[in-house]
Every structure is written in structure tokens, then in C-alpha cells.
Give the backbone structure.
Amino acid sequence: MESHPDLTVSVIRGLGWFYLIVAVMNAFWTYRVFRSGAHYNSIAGFKDVPKAATWGLYTVVLAMLSFAHVIVDSTPADFLFRLPVGFKNLVDVVIANPISYFAVSMVIFVAMILLRRVWTRPTVAWVLLNIAMLFLGVSMTDYDFRQIVGKPDNVPIVGMLFLVGFFTWLYFYKSVENDRRIAAGEPKIEDEQSEQVLVWPDLVYTEMICMLLLTAFLIAWGIALQAPLEEPASAVKTPNPSKAPWYFLGLQEMLVYYDPWMAGVVLPSVILVGLMAIPYIDFNPKGNGYYTFEERKFSVITFLFGFLPLWVGMIVLGTFIRGPNWNMFGLYEYWDVHKLEVLNNVDLSQLFWVDWLGKPLPRPDANASALSQAGTIFLREWLGFALVLAYLFILPPLMAVTVFRSFFVKMGFLRFMVLANLILLMGALPLKMALRWAFTLKYIVSIPEWFFNI
Amino acid sequence: MSVGEYIRESQIWRSIFRHPAPYDRRNRAVVMLTNFFLHLHPVSVKQGGIALSYTWCMGGVTFFLFLVETLTGVLLMFYYRPTLEWAFTDIRALRDVTTLGIMREIHRWGAHAMVITVWLHMYRVFLTGSYKPPREFNWVVGVLLLVLTLLLSFTGYLLPWDQLAIWAITVGSNMARATPVLGHEGPGFQLLNLGGYDLITNASDARFLLLGSRFVGEETLNRFYILHCVAIPLVVATLIAIHFWRVRKDGGISQPL
């Protein structure tokens, strides 16, 4: 018997119920497809095969899978349905590396936008949902995956991922349809519903049903899953890893790339100020009160980039992938406290003086006046300061006369400067990540004497 | 005369509800105007403005969760004592022995759900461009409500006083140490000094203000308890009122006036 069994009877039975839910969902889907009467023209020589047949077959397979799980009485170790080790290793290698993690999330992000007409088609979306659910289900057969995903406080995050996915789909689904209608000169979806209706009963009853369902949902959730309560607090037993509450894990992830004063204070403040500034810098009057992508590409892409890969993506990273010593671990990897990751990041000043010029780093003389010490420090860090100042003060005017020229003309000086700086500060995170990966760069400006590192 | 009619004709009923039941068009309008709870709504709205696939209902769900948190939170306050001696024990008792201890489960899951729904609400408001004129300022109020929701959740996270709680708050509040100028490990803290003595130390900086101590201790528990149960909810309730009032004044949840 393994000490940490991948499969136990209760896990297998639980998965059986999970697959049953997926099967029932697909039974409804099969019915929906059947009602639509869609047919394949020809499949393996058979003419006019209803598409519902494929879905029916899939549903039956799921139901049998569910059945096999629920009635299991062999020893769990002999149970056949588990993840192939090769697949686990592949996923672990891709996930546990920051470069490939962000590369994959960027590929998904770009594909989501470019292929929006494809993946918003209900059938494609349904297939994607099925893949996600089956991935979740099959992954549950892995002990380490269960440990981390099944932690009570992490369950809501799994739920959030499905919700965010669903609503993102809904947005693109409606936008694609509206954009088509706008291009064809037809009324938008929202325009078709411009009739005035009475709030009682149309809205009041919806609200009441919502409240009842939510209450029932919360009670069921409370009964099914106990809220976490660990050992009593102890100031001397530091857990490894020590994590902030899950909704702040995106910010905690920034600590890998920036010092606390940036990651914990300045950048979160910039996020909030930036959010509040949105209505005042988005000068585009279109897209108010209806879903559209084409009419406000820039603002939507910027917001989606901030919300999906940078906020939600980093929460996923911080919650499921960051383990002991803040190392990255694959989804199916054991959280080994002794996993070593070599960190030999260097500062830009080190690179400039020592590696490129071959000189020793200028050191402030402890006996010299404060002014002369500061002078030495500025000399040591001049390149970093120059880069940072150029990034924040030279790039915005450059953007104004090149790529953002039309924006600048429409927005005026002040609005444009706010927009440009917000965009640059948002880009500062992926930029620093890329610099870290490409040059093992630690700090662009490194002044530990003043706790001032960028 | 049926019993129902008898009740509805009685002086007591009519003193509470000053109009006939909302069975016809006129009275369906009147009920919205004369009921305190319903007058938050207009009498009539555009059909598209209340379609679930358009609104996602996330703002309403967030508000409802706030009410659930208030109700379960008040019930929990009757039981829970925010002291080092009792905090953990009380929560464990809520889990193991207390009748209706499930209030704690609902409170915690509701809190997580509220954080998620407030994000999704913001997501929808952005994607429908509902922050555009004339609703710019209501978006700002919404961002403040988002921050306060996170702070409510953050302060509540400490109260069970288990390992999860104090270390999450320790990690989270350590950031305040690095506040520029005002944190004792932040850039420029040396700027604030009097005759060579630093004004910003680990016993006087931003983190100390937050924790009431140099580490997460009993003063922190008390401070977070007050913030969680009284101070922040009062501000949130006020801002929610303003948020809703402005939705009405700005002519609904979206579209130009």
C-alpha cells in the first residue's frame, strides 16, 4: 500500500458522481442537438447521421464510466482509470516553469481574441467545457493534485475559474453576434429588448428567485464543505509556504520580481488609481450599453490582459503552483521542501560595471559626507536610473507621436499622459519578468542603502 | 369573504400596505413607489436592462451576499470573543458543538463568493461600457467598494486565529513595512527625522498603525475585529447606498441617457 495513495475508494466513488453530473449535462446537450435536427451529410458511408448520435454515444460512455467508478470493489491500487505518468510529467514541466507558464497563458490569451468567432460557437464551447471538466476529474486521481485543489480555501478558486471562463465566453459570444449585426447594419441584440416592462413582477420576482437559489446554494456548500480551521495560531511555527489570502496572491507573485515597496504598495495603488481612471481616459463613446469587441478593441484588450493573465492567471499561479520556499511545482508534483532552485540573479549595476566594463562596483565611502555618498550611489546606478526615467518620461511622448498618435490627438495632453503611464506601469510587470528570464536580472536600480530597489 | 380578503381589508394590514395588492397595472406601479424596500427600483425598466444574459446579476448577487454576511456575521458576534484566549476555541466550538455553527461556514464561503462576484460585476460593467458618461463617478464608487470588499475579507481572515489566519495576515501586512516614507523598511523613511532621530520605526510606521503592534498579536485581533464588524461595514453600507442611488439618478445600469 502506498503511503500517499493516488486512489482511494472514496475518491473513486466521488469521481463516479462527478462523471454522472457530466453525463447528465451531456444528456441535456444531446437532447438540444437532437431538437435542432443537425445532421452529418455522410459518415463512414452512412448518409444523414444525426449529430445527436455522436453526443448520445459520448453520454453513454460517460454514464458507463460513472457506473464503473461507483460500483468499484477492486482494490484502489488496481483501478485502471488514472493519469498516464508521461502526461503528468509533461504538464508538470510546462507548468512549473515561469517562462512556459506565461508563454502558454499568453498563447491562450491571444488565441482567445483571434479565434473568438470559432470558440464562441456553442458546440466548440461545449467541447471546451467538457475538456475542462474531464481534465479536472481525471486529475483528481492524482494525490498531489487533490491535496492542493481540494484545500477548502482553494475550492472557490476552481469555481471562479469556471465562472470567469463562462462569462468571458458569454461576452465574446454576444460581441461576435453584435459586431456582425453592426457590420450588416442590423439592430443589436440589446436594441431588440428596448420595450419598457414593469419592475413588479418582471424584476422583483427574478430577484426573489435569485435570492432563494443563492441561499440554498450557500447552505448546501456550508454543509458539504467545512470551512478551514488549522492548528491554533503560533507565532513561532512559520508555515512553508506562507501565503496571503488567495485574492492577494497575484500581488504576492509580484514580490518575485519587485521589492515589497513596489509590489506591495506602489503597484497595487497604481492598479486602483488606474481602475478609477478608466472612465476618464476612455474617450470612445461607443460600446455603452451593449456588448461589442470591434468598436472598442483597445480598451477591451487592455482590460482583459490585466484581468485574465495578470490578475486571475497570477492567482492561479500563486495558489496552485507556488509551493515551499515559493518554488514552482507542477500540478501533479509533490511539494518537496528540499526542492532546490538555483537563484543567481544579478543587478544591472553589477552587469554594467563588473561584467561589461570589467571594473569594480563604485562603493560609497562610509566616512565621506552624505552628499558625496549619494553621488557615488547615483554614479553606480546611473544606467538603471536612466532606463527607468526614459521608460516613464521619454516613452510617453514617443508613443504620442508614433503608435498612439490618434489617441493623443483625441485625448489631449493630460489624459494621454495618464493613459501612457498606466499602460507602461502595467507593462512593467511582464517586462521585468522577461528581463529576469532573459538576463537573470534582479534589480534595474539597486540601492539597498535606502531600501530603494526597482 | 375569504380569510385572505379579511386580512387584507383589516386596519392593521392597510396601515402597513397603503394600497391594494399589485394585481393590476396601476397597483404594480404604486407598490414600487410606496414600499420602502422596493422604492430602490424604478417603476418600469427596459427589458434588456434586466435580461440575465446582459446583466449577469452579479451586482445584485454581491449585494445579497453582503446582506447574508451581515446577518450571519451578527449571529457569529453573539458567540465569538476576539481575544487570544477565546478566539480559536470559539471558532472550533462553532464547528464542533454549537447549534447553527454552520453560520460560520456560510459566512466564510459567502465571503469568498462575494469577492468573486464583485470582480465579475466589475467585469460586466466594463465589458458593457457602463462606466461611460454619465456614470464615470459611480464606477469610482464601485472601485472603492471593491477595495473595501477585499479589506473586509482580509480583516475577517484573521479572526479564527489559526495558523492560516495569522500567517496570511502577517504576509499581507508585511507589505506595509515597505511603504515609501511611512514604512520602517520603505525607501525614504529616513527623510522623516527630528535631530537625527528617525520618526519612523517599527513601533510607529504604517504597519504598526495597521496591526496596533510590531507583530500580529492581540492588539491586531482587536483592531481587525472592530474594522471587520463595525468600521468597514459602516463605510460599505454608506457607499452601497450612494452606488444604488446614483444608478437610479443616472437612468439605469447602462446606456447613454
User: Anything to note?
Assistant: DSSP finds 17 helices and five strands in chain A. The longest strand of chain A covers residues 39-43. Chain A has a mean pLDDT of 91.
